[in-house]
Amino acid sequence: MRITTSAVIRNYQRGLGKSSVQLNSDMNKVLTKRSFSTAAENPAGATQAFKLRKSYESNDNYISNAQDAISKIETIASSGLEMNTVVKSSKEMILQAINGSTSEDGRKTIATSLRGYQETLVLSANAKYGDDFMFGGANNTQAPFELVNGRAQYLGIDVNTTDPTEKAALDKMLSEEVLIDLGFGLEVDGSSDVKSGTAFCTSFSGLNALGYGKDSDGDDKNLINLLGQIADELEKKDFDNDKTSKLSLKLEEAGSSLMNFVTELGTKSNYLDNTLTRLETNKTILSEQINGLEAVDMADAITNYSWSQYAYNAALKVGNSVLSQSFIDYMR
């Protein structure tokens, strides 16, 4: 069988092309440290890698949400403790006023201090985390509390209003939530509401912290207003020690509710810490899975590249011999 020069050259070019492609492929693996660069090289691996990277990105978002929620809760708890300090100082001054030895002027001085504490509580309750008001519940763009004529208002409504419409509005604001996804399998029910337990609530109402409404005796349940009520009693000429003592006990109950609010924040913070630990563990696992799927064994990659380079160089030398001999034969 006669083998023509053109056939030899065609076969040689085909083999040289394959050798060049293999050399470039092996070189790219060494340079990029990846086992494949396109989906066409490994369709199954690329599909799995896409899923893993999507999970990795989602997990990163969950971590960011958890870290932000932890910082927010810690800031709210800090403000809650500041308010509790104010309540403790107030109780000490009130006890001093009702012990029977404080003069009328002394009681008025204490009343002035209590009104100052009212303003301090409002300032603490209007604290911000970044650009958001922390105690505004779902409304974080507006300062939640305002002191008007010695009485507290929450987003423009008297916290102890007896108007049914306004009270319904306060109840609604108290129940509104801002939810974030922490990777619990966020689900929405038929009414477009997020199912309980599939998201984490990051909204906190100052009504929960400081109280609102009136009790069975018709007295205020809000800490700020209770301080104002007690100040009013202390400023009266016909000072009623028994009524002031009664209000003092109610102030103590409201202070206990505030501390329960802070304690609940601590529980949520611990929960978020555990969630963050889990998410960071997931991140490590996903990173290892992605690396195991996409990363190339460098020892094998360098060895394969060396062999490909050797084969390519050998092919070039063979080509020189073939082409040289064919040219001479042609001249003859």
How does this structure look, described?
By secondary structure, this protein is mainly α. The protein has two domains: 5-33 and 296-331; 48-290, Up-down Bundle (f41 fragment of flagellin, N-terminal domain). 67% of the residues lie in helices and 5% in strands. Strands 3-4-5 form a three-stranded antiparallel beta sheet, with helices on one face. The model has no long low-confidence stretch (mean pLDDT 84).
Quick structural summary:
With 332 residues, the chain is mainly alpha-helical. It contains 8 helices and 7 strands. The protein folds into 2 domains: 65 residues; 243 residues, f41 fragment of flagellin, N-terminal domain.
Run of helices and strands: HHHEEEEEHEEHHHH
* Helicity range: 55-70%
Number of DSSP strands? 7
Largest beta-sheet characterization = 3 strands, antiparallel
C-alpha-based Rg, rounded: 37 Å
What is the 3D form?
rod-shaped
Spans with pLDDT under 50 lasting ≥5 residues? none
Which percent range describes the beta-strand content? 5-15%
CATH level-4 homologous superfamily of the largest domain? f41 fragment of flagellin, N-terminal domain
What is the distance, rounded to the nearest whole angstrom, between the alpha carbons of the first and last residues?
Answer: 22 Å
Number of helices: 8
Q: What CATH first level of the largest domain would be assigned?
A: Mainly Alpha
Q: Oligomeric form of this entry? A: single chain
**What is the topology, as strand order, of the major beta sheet?**
3-4-5
As for the CATH topology of the largest domain, it is: f41 fragment of flagellin, N-terminal domain
Write down the overall mean pLDDT. 84
Which secondary-structure class do the elements indicate?
A: mainly alpha
Number of domains: 2
CATH architecture of the largest domain: Up-down Bundle
